[in-house]
Amino acid sequence: MRSTLTRWLPDGLAARFTLLLACALIMANVLALLVLSGERARWGRESRDSRELERIIALVPVLESIEPGRRAVIAASASTRVARVEMSDRPLIVETADTKRSRSLQEQLNQSLAPRDVFVMVGNRQQPGSRQGGERRDRDHRPQKKPGPEIIGVSIRLASVNGSARRATPNTAIRPESAHASWLNITAKGEPALPGAASQLLEDGVFFLILGLSLVSVLAVGLWFVRRLTQPLALLAEAAQAAGRGDRTARVPEQGAREVRAAASAFNSMQAQIARFDAERTRTLGAVGHDLRTPITSLRIRAEMLDDEFREPMVRTLEEMTVMANDLVAFARGNDDGEKLQSFDLNETLVHLCKERGANYLAGGAIQFKGRPVALIRAVGNLIDNAIRYGLAARVSLAHSDGYAIIRIEDDGPGIPAERMMTVFEPFVRGDESRNSETGGAGLGLSIARSIVRAHGGTIELHNRKPSGLLACVYLPMTE
């Protein structure tokens, strides 16, 4: 019983290879989407960070050169859609976050703004100390289900107008006499992280465009390659079917992959060996038949010189020997008498055969069959002769079902005992042991018929009819 997965798989090898390529390609594109999304998010983050750092580094000297009372207005004018700049008497970020990115941004700012105090924090929500964060907490105390946009917070202590800047710790108290704010607070909103980048690619249709182009290109090349790969296997299957029908000339081109070439070479060698064996057997038995006929003919001539009392029994014996020799040669040769495969109308052939043998034929439609017509006439003729000889009459019909041409031969005889149903196909075995050579041959008729039918890839079945009679069914596979 096939597993559930196997039932859903296509039957053809080329289709399975194509499905494998498609699945592998889809998985590769999904992985590429994830990697590309991550890289896109990283590139965008680094580009945004670089722009913000440049703005901050350029803004700090400008603000420090202005009177403290005017710094708030200039800072507000520097705000953008994604970044808010403001002056305050307290830092928005009281301590640099212990994250790799926060420390990296702080180090880059310190390289240009030292000895000023710089604190950086990168996260997904407003940090404590900012007005936006407080207002947001007042409005909604419920935790967010999804992380919000990335927030970069920067706090820088500006120097006075005369250029003096005092290094301070985050807890340094602001002098009461300080009439103006000295902390520059910047809040920049970034883009969502990896999931958002992947979603953006999906929304833009870029992923599906790349996937579609990849599938079309790879599957086109893959399908062509797979068909080239499996074509030798199809040729091997056709040659094997032809060999099963007795065609010893069927050969397979030795092309394709190494394993396929090895299989084709083995098949061709097998066909050549079988052909040599059949040819040698035919030559040997032909010589035996010829050697037997010569002494039989000599004895026949001598028997004619005897008196009638002795001549008639001897002539009958010699005739029996002639029949047995001819049947033996026919059985050994089977249908390998050099006849070539050809396409012919099986219905028309049976019409002429039944007319010659005196059988009743139920005419059917034309059925084109590829085989050896002379050999099949011999096989079906043996069955018809047995039906007429032992069953008193023969009725023949032809049908086509499930890819087989089915020939039925019925008679009204006593039938064959069930225990002997299979043994009657053996050489020199008769269906009725009481029969002698006057009522039948040497017991090779069914053996010859089965040998010919098997050479065409078919089978013969015998069934007893009720109340009496025998039914012989010949199944011949149709070929395209």
UniProtKB/TrEMBL annotation:
Sequence ranges assigned to domain HAMP in this UniProt record: 227-279
Catalytic activity line of the entry: ATP + protein L-histidine = ADP + protein N-phospho-L-histidine
Sorted UniProt keywords: ATP-binding, Cell inner membrane, Cell membrane, Kinase, Membrane, Nucleotide-binding, Phosphoprotein, Transferase, Transmembrane, Transmembrane helix, Two-component regulatory system
GO CC field: plasma membrane
Highest taxon listed in the record's lineage: Bacteria
One Pfam family, short name: HisKA
Stretches assigned to coiled coil: none
Protein name: histidine kinase
Origin species: Granulosicoccus antarcticus IMCC3135
